[in-house]
Design a protein that fits this description.
about 65% helix; alpha+beta; 4-stranded antiparallel sheet; 5-stranded antiparallel sheet
Amino acid sequence: MAGLLYRLGRFAARRHWTVIIAWIVLMAIAGVTFSLFSGTISSAISIPGTKTSQVQDELADKFPSANGGNGTIVFQTKDGGAFTSAQRDDVQAFLTDLEDLPGVKGTTDGFATQQRLDDQRQKIVDGRKEISDGRKELEDGQAQLDAQKEQLESGKQQIADAQAQLDAQKAQAEAQAGAAGAAAAASPAAQAQAQAGQQQLEQAQAQIDAQQQQLTAGEQQLADAQKTIDQNTQKLEDSERDLEQGSDLLDLSKDIRFVSSDDSAAIGTVQFTKSTYEVPQTTKQEISDRAEAATISGVDVYVSNDIAQGVPSILGPGEIIGVVIAALVLFLMLRTVIGAAIPLLSAVLGVGVATLASLSFSDLVEFISVTPVLGVMLGLAVGIDYSLFILNRHRTQLKQGMGVHESIGLANGTSGNAVVFAGTTVIVALLALNITGIPFLGLMGTVGAVAVLFAILIATSFTPALLSLLGLRILRKKEREQIGNTGSVRVPNKPMSTWRAVITLIAGVAVLGTIALPATQMRLGLPSGSSEAVESSQYKAYKTLEQEFGAGQNGPLLVVATLPQAVSEDDVTATEVTIGQALAENDDVDAVLPIGASKDRTIIAFQVKPNGGPDSVSTEELVKDLRAQSVSTDDGRVELGVAGNASANIDVSEKLANVLPLYLAVVVGLSLIILIIVFRSFLVPITATAGFILSVLASFGGLTAIYQFGWLGSVFGVHDPAPILSFLPIIEIGILFGLAMDYQLFLVSGMREAYAHGASAKVAVQRGLHAGRAVVTAAAIIMISVFAGFIFSESSTIKPIGFGLAFGVLLDAFVVRMLLIPAVMHLLGRSAWWIPKWLDRILPDVDVEGAKLERMQPATGHRSVADGSTPAATGRADARQAATDPVGDAQSGGGHHGSHAAPAEPDAPTHGSGHPPAHRA
């Protein structure tokens, strides 16, 4: 690799215009592909296969009318008074106009919804009065009917008595007729009298029969009347049952309002055809634009975070300030404007090509808004640093008298080789994000890896071309006058005090451990409206809802009850009441509002308003409790599913938290393997990895303290503390791992080089630190500046990412790599470089910094310094050859006469066998 980079550097130096124009053309091609193929960028974060998405899929299949996302628009009078009728009409007209947007299913204004709820409550009151009046009428009718029944019974008794009397008279008449039969036959008068008596009896019987018929008819009438009363009573009871069930449902939702109690605020709802995460950003942006341009007299229109969470700008004022600070650091280090401009120009070009190329695929792959910003953040930071490493090496070699083209090639083959290794570790760590199985996270890692890849390519091709174009002008005039006469550079010859090493180690670990303590209480989540800027529409909407309608209105839950079997139409309301009351029994439920049942009546949906906001602990626990709750009906057990924006955020955070240990294990394992190969040691990789874990945990602690606890909130613009961005820990682990390995390489390889050249292990620690601290300090400050610029971004998603990376680099570079690692290496002594011989033989010889290439270059001359200083000349490569290959040097008949800065110490290495050590660029 070193030889390939050397040839690439020489080619770029000879054909500098070809290389520069090629990169400009590549930039133009990326711009054209971006303009032709780029798509929209989403601000929503979702993960397929979560419990929320499963519920939404079920709704889409069986209950389409309840599927789809909702967005909230808040209307509030400017003077705090009640809405006028004209303002209500304007609000309704505004919402109606939104229905023509693509992806919008419909809109609901809070006034109509609140009026319906109020009307339903009034209907309950009126219905109860009507039932009471109806019951009284039925009771009065029953009383009259009972009285008539008594009269009928009395009449029946009278007729029965009259019939009995008549029957007695008939019997008497028959007896008299039999006794006087003969006499009566002989006397016409008696016959006439008997006939008259018989006639009277028949008339009396006819009267009784007529009265009986009247009684029978009256009895039928009374029976019919009783039946009517019974039917009306049953209807009244059914109506009363339905009314009470409706009353129970309204009681469950009594704390849900769509117009505030003082009539000064109202909620408008936009229903989308798809889930909120899938709604096109253009539609959301159009709604936001219309809300901002709304001209409703005396009314403010605020769009909630569900709609207005837009795409952050890639570069804002804070980011530009960070780049300016990086430029100042470059100027102070190099003391030349031209030299400071080259890393910046290289980084900007790399970021431009990488960003445009990546976004060209945004029409095919869904990009979330933070993805390109992360690429820019990484591309700028590593792009500046990687170009700086090569530039700094080139300047040093020029001052020693090396030719421009030769110096460019050698700088590219040595420092450039280290850049490739360092960048590759970052790329591998970022690409490893794909093992999490989370699409948006894998894409973020891939885009970040592309940005780092282009930073490497730019640093090893475009930067050498610029250096060739500038020639010796990369040096200051004074430096050009002193070419070849660089003097000597003093290096340490005494190790640090053991007590100092012990104190440094204990104090450093204690400080990092203390800073990491808040991380034990870290909670993960996604940004809500409370995280946005105070002057933003999202923040004002969030606060208005919280103050006027309760915190839970900012994150209502959609609870879907899947019934064991379909219920009849008559039983739907009763089932809603049973399930709704069971949901309301949870402590953190503020209200339950039934939405309706599916067409096949196997699914019933509810809107549940929690007590807390969408990012509160209570809401998170409520989601878990609802999913675990068991509700039983007459038909069996009901399965509950939870969806909605708050639920989706919780699911995303939970999924990310679950894959975090796996990713950490992969990165730590990767770290150990790579470092064992590079440094050919066991303890060095272990200490490096332990330091990385310490710095990561401490950065997590800082994040938690500031963004979750709110400490120093006024300094960092944290007005409403909230959970930490759910994907930030994984992203930070991947990026900081790569950067930590960069600093480990540049510092510890210097210690290895000094040790290989005969210094004692403890003195080598001081020499390696002395040699690498300047460039590592500059590189770290540049990275911190670039990352810190994003802390003051307008996006609540970008802010914590910028802080986490800046704080992590600060701790890792200045505390771990420059304090703890030297202290540990001092205490370990020679054992730091121990490795089993069998493993040393089988490990590949990774010449990370091109030491072999450097030994192949002709020396430019050097001189020894007896007081412990050593020439800063490229000719020291000869000394390296003598130190790493003493047998070969002896066999050459003493053709080389190198010298060390100090005689070999008792614990200095002897490399009579094995592989030559790695060297520092």
